Amino acid sequence: MSYRSIVCVGLSLAFALLVPAVAGAQSRPAAAPTFSKDVAPIIYKNCTVCHRPGEIGPFSMMTYAETRPWVKAIASQVTAGTMPPWHADPAYSTFINDRRLSAADKDTIVKWVAAGAPEGNRADLPPAPTYPSGWAIGQPDAVFEMTEAYPVPASGTIDYKHFEVPTNLTEDKWIQAFEFKPEARAVVHHIIVYARPPRRPAPAVAAAPPAPGAPRPTPPFTMASDMNTPPEHRTGMAKQATPNDRPVPKDGMGAFVGGFAPGQAIRIYQEGTAMRLPAGSTLIFQVHYTAGGKPVTDRSKIGFVWAKSAPRQELVTVPLINGNFTLPAGAPNTEVDAQMTFNTDTTIWSILPHTHVRGREWKVEVTYPDGRKEVVLAVPKYDFNWQTDYVFKEPLKLPKGTSLKTLAWYDNSTRNRSNPDPSVDVHWGEQTWEEMQFTALTMTIGTSESRPTGGQ
Description:
This protein is of the alpha+beta class. The protein has helices at about 5-25, 35-45, 65, 70-80, 105-115; strands at about 140-145, 150, 160-165, 175-180, 190-195, 220-225, 255-260, 265-270, 275, 280-290, 295-300, 300-305, 315, 315-320, 335-340, 345-355, 360-365, 375-380, 390-400, 405-410, 440-445.
């Protein structure tokens, strides 16, 4: 064989070997996602607010070592859309606190787990989020704590307890954000804080009575008249004294400030809005405890961040309730609604629907003065374990004459795995084996021009 032939053969072999190598390089799959570079940013942004030491998540995800044992469960929950928890139907309205992961983030997590959940180069790891003193809202300007460590028994039914906490505020404050910190989180079912302003001294000169025949002031809204809880449907709780009772204060409760329930511990109000806390107010902590099998003590608290100045619009939270209903034993799909009509222009900033373990679906719709109807919130798979205050990205501006209707559906049948007893009729009640049809509406009544907030 000539030299030229040998060279030609050699070049042919080299080329033949090179082509598969080049083709293999072009078709080589992309490197698998790693925790440090790809997954940690997603977890830090979406998960660690709950999955960190001392919080509601059952395990921490602040580090790779803490996250790695749970990767199969994480992939399963993310794929199913169960985590992060979010239950509003995206077909109706958008919300600034939407917790859903993007499709790209879901894909990254699933591919990472499928590849064996590699840690990757630790140099790629972004800084972990910081939570000042454990507060997700940042360091509060003021923290108010129950004045006693309440002894929660190991067993039995526990009525709602009420604790008075003086604020000693010397001037009105505007609440920009709040966060609840239950001490014995495992036994705290919910907390609602009210603010009772101090009693005002009687005026030296009594106000003149209205002239005969003068029209009464129109209330800002009107509730349907048939929704009060009738005596036969009221809870059987609190009919007699109970050990370590803390009953409703004789001086009353005051205005609604905020609430805690599983999944809902924080509220940050949009810029230009805030809730007034009058000087000298006493906070009333209404706490619902559920016995956890061993005696514990609880001393829950709430932290506030104050607005730096008086807001353009003052917020109030108004409950819409229907306590007059029966859920028949075994019935799988009973509808209960409630309705209110606005007698002045009103802006709705957020809606928090609440039922107990038989609640399965929610819907909120408005009917405008021209007859047009609009669904503004739909929760097709309501989850009692994850209460959510749905905060609108674009607040609902409802003109005078608009009506708002809430609709809840309940499953009191055997197919509801959370149903404590499908053999009994169920009415309104405070305990979880009873039911509620309750909606908290955070709103501005009237326009900002018609409702000046005054100075701070």
